[in-house]
Design goal:
3 helices, alpha+beta, 4 strands, four-stranded antiparallel β-sheet
């Protein structure tokens, strides 16, 4: 079994959620599991599609997180850059010191 040594976090507008989740589900060799959280966010470079979001200055977004192997995370990012080249999708990779289950 590969070492689970990083956390890949993807953040995108809620309208892109299903497309990103589909990519994760299509690659079980890279992604063993993930969590989805609804969040709000804003940045100076962000496009706010609705009038309500423009007034509020932020949009409804989703944050997808997966504890995974670093090499697999990089393969997934390369795949997403090719298949979903979109500046509205942000990502970061953080190290995991330890990962396990309580049972």
């Amino acid at each position: 079994m590969k070492e689970m040594n990083c956390n890949l976090t993807l953040v995108c507008h809620k309208s892109l959620e299903e497309r990103l989740v589909d990519h994760l589900l299509e690659h079980p060799e890279w992604v063993r599991g993930f969590s989805v959280a609804r969040i709000e966010g804003g940045s100076q470079k962000e496009k706010l599609p609705s009038m309500i979001e423009q007034v509020r200055g932020r949009s409804q977004r989703v944050q997808i997180a997966s504890v995974m192997n670093l090499d697999d995370a990089r393969l997934l990012i390369a795949h997403l850059k090719h298949e979903e080249p979109n500046t509205e999708i942000a990502y970061w990779i953080s190290p995991i010191i330890e990962f396990g289950r309580l049972g």
